[in-house]
Give the backbone structure.
Amino acid sequence: MTIRTVIYAALLAAVTAVLAQIAIPLPGGVPFTLQVFAVFLGIFLLGKKSFWGMVTYLLLGAVGLPVFAQARGGIGVILGPTGGYLLGFALSGLIAGYIVEFTNFNLRGKILAVVVSLLIIYSLGTIQLAYVLKLPLSKAIAVGVTPFIPWDILKGAIALLLATHLQKALSTAGVKLNG
Amino acid sequence: MINVNTIGQYIPGNSLIHRLDPRTKFFTLLVAVFLVFFLDNLVHLGFLLFGVILVTFLAGIKPKMFWQALKPVVFILVLALILQLFFTPGEKLITIGPFKITREGLINSGIVFLRLVVMLLSAYLLTATTSPTELTHGLESLLKPFGRFGLPYGEIALMLTIALRFIPTLTEEAERLIKAQESRGADFYTRGLSKKAQMMLPLIIPLFINAFKRADELAVAMEARGYRIGAPRGKLKPLKFTAKDYLFLFLNLLIAMLFVILKLWGGFPAKF
Amino acid sequence: MKIAVEIENLMFFYPDGNKALDGVSFVVPERSKTVILGPNGAGKSTLLLHLNGLYTPNRGKVRIFGKLINAENIREIRKKVGLVFQDPDDQLFASTIFDDVAFGPQNLELDKKEILRRVEEALKAVDMWDLRDRPPHHLSLGQKKRAAIAGVLAMEPDIVVLDEPMAYLDPRGQEEITAILNRLNNEGKTVIVSTHDLDWALEWADYVVILNAGRVMAEGDKSILTNRRLLEQNGLKAPLLVTLFEDFEGKLGIPTSLKEAKQKLKKIML
C-alpha cells in the first residue's frame, strides 16, 4: 500500500458519501441516488484499490456517520436488511477491480466489471435481505431486486459513458491515476 | 440541500456510558448483535430490548431520540412487517377481508421487529455516546492485533480521518456545482429522464476531478512531513481501560451467558 | 557567508518531456530572507519541491547545509527543510488543527511529551493555539495558511520554504504571515519564499533569486530589485517605489524600503 492508495481510497469514500446524498426523484417514488456511480467509477479509475475506498466508506457508516443513502448511518444499516448491498460494494470493488486491472482498463473489461459488480451487489443484497427479514428468497427478489435492477443497469451504462470523459478530464488536470 | 453532518449522531455528554473506552462499547455492541441473531424467542428478545433501553437511560439519552435511531428503517420495517403478517403460511388467527394473519406470521413479525429495533438502538447508542475521533481511535486499536496478519490498521485509520476531513469540503463543492447547473436552467426535479442523465455529467465529473486533484498534492504534503507507509508513529492519546470498563465487560459476558442458558433451557416460551 | 542551500546545475523534466528547470544554479545564505521571483510558469514551484527531496533532479545537485540530498539522508533533510504549499487545503487533512500539526512529530516517532510540546509551540508561533480544536474547513484562508505553517514548524526545521504564501490573502492576512516569517528569521531560521509580488519582496527580502523559463537570470542582494530593466526583461513588474524614484536616481538614489523612501523625501523637504 502506498500513500497514494490511502489518499485515493479516502477520497473515493468521501465522494461516495456525497453522491449517496444526491438523489433524483423518479416517477414511481423510487429514489435514484448517485451512490453507485461512485462505486463503478471508483472501480474504473482505481481498479482493486477501490476496495479500500469502499471499506473506508462502510467503516465511516459503521461508526455512525450519515454517509449512506438518505443520510443514514450506523452499524445497524450494515447489519440490517439493506446491508448486503453495501457489503457488495466492497466485494465488487475487489473482484471487479481485479477484472478491470487484468484487462488493462479497456472497455470490455469495464463492461464485464459492471456486470460482475451488479451480480455481486444484488446477490449479497438479496441474501441478507431475505435473512434479516425472514423472507423466502422469491419474495426478497421481488422486493429487493426487481424494482431496482433496471435502474442500476442504466446507471452502469451511464458510468461507462462517463468513464472516458472522466479519464480525459483527469489527465488534462494533470492527475495520474492507475489507468 | 445535501447535509452530511460529520458530527453524525454524536450527542456530547458526560454519562457513564460516554466515559467508557470506545473498545468496551464496540464489544458491547458485538454482544448485542450476537444475541439479536442468537435469540429466536419473542420473550427473550423482549428482555434484551429492556436491557438496551436501560443502557440508553444510563447514557442520558432522551427517549425521543429513539425515533432518530429508527428513522432510517421505518419504511423497510413496515414493509417487512406487512409481508410477514399477511403472507406467512400457517395457522390462521384473524381474517381481514382477503388477507389472513397467521400465528406464525404474528410471531415472525414480532421477532423481526424486535431484532431490528434492538440492533438499531444498540448501534445508535454506540455512535451517540462516542465522538468520531474516539471511534476512529477505538477502531484502530481493535484492528491492531490483526496487523500481525498484514491488516494495515494504521492506514485504515488514516483513510477514515482523511475521508472525514474532506466530506464537508466535497459536499460544498457538490452544492456549488448543483447551483451552477440550476442557474443555467437545469432543474433536478424535471420529468425528462434523458435530461436528468445530462445533468449528471457536469456534476459527477467535476466532483471526481476536484477530489483526486487534491489527492496528489496531499500525498506530497504528507511525504514532506515525514510520513512513510507502515512506519511506526508516536502515540499521542493512547486508550486506557479503567475500572468501569472492566466492570462493563464483565457484565456483558455475564448477561450473554445468562441469555444463552435461558435459550438452551427453553424458559419463557412464547405461547399464545 | 555561510550557505544554507546550494543548487548546482539543476535540470528537471516534466513527465511529458517538457523541460521545467534548465541548469539552475544559485545559493541561499544561512539565516537569510530569500525570495525566489519569477513569472508564472518560470518553474518556481517545481524548484521548491527539490529543496526537500520530493522531486529528484534529472541532472545536477541539491545541497542542504553542504550535504547532498540522497535516498539515505532524506528523512534528515525533511527534518531540516520544511515546505509549506500554496493551497493549505492540500496540506491540512486531519479532523482538527491540533491533530494535523501533531502529524509531523508523530512521524518522527517522538515521545508523547515532546509531541505535545512541539505542537503547542508551533501553534503559538502562528497564533493559532486557541483554535486548535477546530476542523480545517471551519477556518478562514488566512487561518488555514497559518495552520499549515504550524504543521511544518512542528518538525522544527532550520529552513522554512513557502510557495506563494501571500496568494489570495487580504492585507491583514498578509501582515500576519509576514510577521510570522520575520519572527522565524529572528529565531535564526533561513526563510525562502517564492512570490511574484515585488512590492512585498522589496520590503521583506535580503536575498533575491530571479527565475525565468527554468533558468536563473539574476542572484544577489535586494539591489537587484531596483533594476527595472532586468525585472521587466524577465516578465516582472518593478516595485512601485523603484518606478517612482527612477527619474530621481541621480539625486536621491533608489530606496529599497518604504522607510528609506520616506527618509529621502524628508531630506528634500527640509
User: Anything to note?
Assistant: The mean pLDDT of chain C is 91. The two ends of chain C are 39 Å apart (CA to CA).
